[in-house]
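== Folding the chain ==

***
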Amino acid sequence: MSTRLRLTLPALAFAVLFAVVGPAAGARAEERPYPDREGRIVAPAPSVGERAARIALGAVGIPYEWGGESPESGFDCSGLVRWVYGRLGVELPHNSYALYGEGRRVSRARMKPGDVLFFEGLGHVGLYLGRGRMVHAPQSGRDVEVVRLAGSSYGARLVGARRVVPA
């Protein structure tokens, strides 16, 4: 195989794949995988929100504890959000009402992993994971869990989402 063909083939394969599959749903150009100089496909580094969502998933199964904000003490809903973002160097209040003033509003159609979700009365929060799911600390007697918004009462009670850091 000629050197020119060998160098062109990976880029051509990527172009065909991109044409057939298309970009990730809703992804901007800077968020899509791209070929490096050798033609290898490179995924962009995860956003702060994506990293927050992954950290939150690690808390699944930890018991709910009112006022809790650590794996050792347990979590309440805003304590979980505070702990997750604290691990990323982002200081947030341990209060769902105060959290509602952080970051910027995001429409339901533009939610991304790591966005903080707020529910009727602003007394409950969760972290969006993507694909219609969130992780949250629900209530006494239960553990941190993942739920589908559409398959639960939470979807109908969602009143807002905030992006606390640029994603």
Q: What stands out?
A: The longest helix spans residues 3-21.
